[in-house]
């Protein structure tokens, strides 16, 4: 099984789409103001955003992870574009390096690099 797409809710695609474009995703379906689909710059996964009238921004149930081989450089690029991060690139106990931010609707975004530890950490079940 391979990840095909993730869809997140948004109260304003006019705000959300440019945010994800700054992250490097390419708009491939433009059905604004109700729906947009973007293509990840690496791999084959896509990312969708659909309009909702009422979004519960206190619900932290949606977290999206985007892997970046050059995480520090990507972080610097996004800071230059004016994106605000909740946490800078930080080495985690689970052997991933992560930086976090929130999209305009409060969905948590994690940019990370894990290398071989993404699917094969030392504690992987054999």
Automatic annotation (TrEMBL):
<dbReference type="InterPro" id="IPR004360">
    <property type="entry name" value="Glyas_Fos-R_dOase_dom"/>
</dbReference>
<protein>
    <submittedName>
        <fullName>VOC family protein</fullName>
    </submittedName>
</protein>
<dbReference type="InterPro" id="IPR029068">
    <property type="entry name" value="Glyas_Bleomycin-R_OHBP_Dase"/>
</dbReference>
<dbReference type="Pfam" id="PF00903">
    <property type="entry name" value="Glyoxalase"/>
</dbReference>
<dbReference type="InterPro" id="IPR037523">
    <property type="entry name" value="VOC_core"/>
</dbReference>
<feature type="domain" description="VOC">
    <location>
        <begin position="2"/>
        <end position="114"/>
    </location>
</feature>
């Amino acid at each position: 099984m391979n990840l095909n797409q993730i869809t997140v809710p948004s109260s304003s695609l006019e705000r959300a789409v440019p945010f994800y474009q700054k992250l490097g995703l390419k708009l491939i379906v433009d059905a604004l103001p109700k729906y947009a689909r973007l293509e990840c710059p690496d791999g084959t996964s896509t990312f969708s955003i659909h309009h909702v009238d009422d979004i519960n921004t206190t619900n932290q149930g949606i977290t999206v992870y985007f892997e970046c081989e050059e995480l520090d450089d990507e972080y610097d690029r996004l800071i230059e574009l004016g994106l605000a991060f909740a946490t800078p690139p930080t080495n985690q106990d689970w052997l991933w390096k992560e930086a976090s931010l929130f999209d305009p609707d409060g969905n948590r975004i994690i940019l990370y690099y894990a290398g071989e530890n993404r699917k094969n950490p030392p504690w992987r079940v054999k």
